[in-house]
Amino acid sequence: MGLVVQKYGGSSVADAEGIKRVAKRIVEAKKNGHQVVVVVSAMGDTTDELIDLAEQVSPMPAGREFDMLLTAGERISMALLAMAIKNLGHEAQSFTGSQAGVITDSVHNKARIIDVTPGRIRDSVDEGNIAIVAGFQGVSQDKKDITTLGRGGSDTTAVALAAALDAEVCEIYTDVDGVFTADPRVVKKARKIDWIAFEDMLELAASGSKVLLHRCVEYARRYNIPIHVRSSFSGLQGTWVSSEPIEQGDKKVEQAIISGVAHDTSEAKVTVVGVPDKPGEAATIFRAISDAEINIDMIVQNVSAASTGLTDISFTLPKTEGRKAIDALERAKTAIGFDSLRYDDQIGKISLVGAGMKTNPGVTASFFEALSDAGVNIELISTSEIRISVVTRADDVPDAVRAVHSAFGLDSDSDEAVVYGGTGR
Ligand code: ADP
Ligand code: ASP
Ligand code: MG
């Protein structure tokens, strides 16, 4: 039997009982003959609490010291988990991201993994230990500073280690039974998906289904690492995310036409009002944004008012980057020559994802009809080959998600989706 990487999210190790429960599960995998490498997140809402604390001493915490602070959360859980495993009579060693060989670029708070050199982890498991690695962190290649990978980054740590260690599978343990057709906290009738292709999962993750992080799925696809998303609270089979359909009985699971509905209320909308309608304006705006290292999502440019020769450009971005974006645009005001800026953080995004969209023109119309029947007004629209997204008022999101989920026949008629833990924060 080969090596498995198991990742346990914050809700699975929220308290001492959770840590002991997870320790038992890890020991079972070891007893079954696997070499086991575990990636662990900070306990419960520890990361949010550390951020709140930092904001009390500094208005916009960022950079080196902020990363140093946040990585403390995972250090606590990794040491406690190793202790709990030892208490069950098995050998375990904990490692920080840096000790585990997670090498990143030097962009603090959202570093990218550029290499993984897990020599110490390999030695530790070869000596018979269970290796516990702190998720969400690494060390920068050039400055040797401690970095973090962005919120939810432990998923990426797990897949990156699985790839570097040539693991059989990467198991992501969380507080729901797998990937569902919508967030079970919003849609009680969401249905568990048995298998989903990397492509569809990438779109769901990018559209806000935080059960798996987008970068983690990207990494898994690049190295073809199958992911098994499952609950640490139940013994059920979860969701397989891979390139090829899994077998069920003697049949292959079929690719769904519609994979699911995702939502995201973590973004804000910036509108640059009164931009001269001439070549080079969009370039200047988005150069200023990119120089500030801000990733944007949707962009819409309105039709120019013929009388004034002016147009408005709106785009969405993570709320956490809002202040930075406004500052960057204000600094570039003379170069761009706009009238004013508008900032709106009361927006939400709803996305429908499915490979069937490529060949089924009716999908778009049904999506808009469902929103209209629910009385939801659409502010922005964007599409890819297998996704349609709209921006609405944040308050409309839960109703809109449920309406679209029902309209596409995704509601399950059996068990309600179970949420075992976590605060959804
Ligand atoms: P962890 O602490 O284990 O990393 P997260 O809170 O990051 O857990 O992710 C699990 C949560 O993702 C679930 O509790 C659920 O509310 C949310 N979620 C959003 N979309 C989906 C989906 N399509 N399927 C399952 N869970 C989803
Ligand atoms: N603890 C970090 C967070 O809350 C990383 C993770 O849980 O994946 O974002
Ligand atoms: Mg997560």
From TrEMBL:
This entry's Gene Ontology molecular function terms read: aspartate kinase activity; ATP binding
According to its UniProt record, this protein's enzyme class is transferase
* EC numbers for this chain: 2.7.2.4
Please provide an example of a Pfam family that matches this protein in its UniProt record.
ACT_9
Q: In which pathway does it act?
A: Amino-acid biosynthesis; L-lysine biosynthesis via DAP pathway; (S)-tetrahydrodipicolinate from L-aspartate: step 1/4; Amino-acid biosynthesis; L-methionine biosynthesis via de novo pathway; L-homoserine from L-aspartate: step 1/3; Amino-acid biosynthesis; L-threonine biosynthesis; L-threonine from L-aspartate: step 1/5
The chemistry this enzyme catalyses reads: L-aspartate + ATP = 4-phospho-L-aspartate + ADP
Q: Which residues cross the membrane?
A: none
The UniProt keywords, alphabetically, are: Amino-acid biosynthesis, ATP-binding, Diaminopimelate biosynthesis, Kinase, Lysine biosynthesis, Nucleotide-binding, Transferase
Q: Residues that bind ATP, according to the entry?
A: K7, Y8, G9, G10, T174, D175, R185, K210, V211
Q: Which residues bind substrate?
A: T47, E74
- Gene Ontology terms: biological process: diaminopimelate biosynthetic process; homoserine biosynthetic process; lysine biosynthetic process via diaminopimelate
Q: Which residues form the ACT domain?
A: 270-346, 352-425
PROSITE patterns assigned to the protein according to its UniProt record, in alphabetical order: ACT (PS51671), ASPARTOKINASE (PS00324)
Alphabetical list of InterPro entries matching this protein: AceGlu_kinase-like_sf (IPR036393), ACT-like_dom_sf (IPR045865), ACT_Aspartokinase (IPR054352), ACT_dom (IPR002912), AKii-LysC-BS (IPR041740), Asp/Glu/Uridylate_kinase (IPR001048), Asp_kin_monofn (IPR005260), Asp_kinase (IPR001341)
Identify one Gene Ontology CC term for this UniProt entry: cytosol
What family is reported?
A: Belongs to the aspartokinase family.
Q: Which NCBIfam families match?
A: asp_kin_monofn, asp_kinases, PRK06635.1-1, PRK06635.1-2, PRK06635.1-4
Recorded protein name is: Aspartokinase
Organism annotation: Streptomyces guryensis
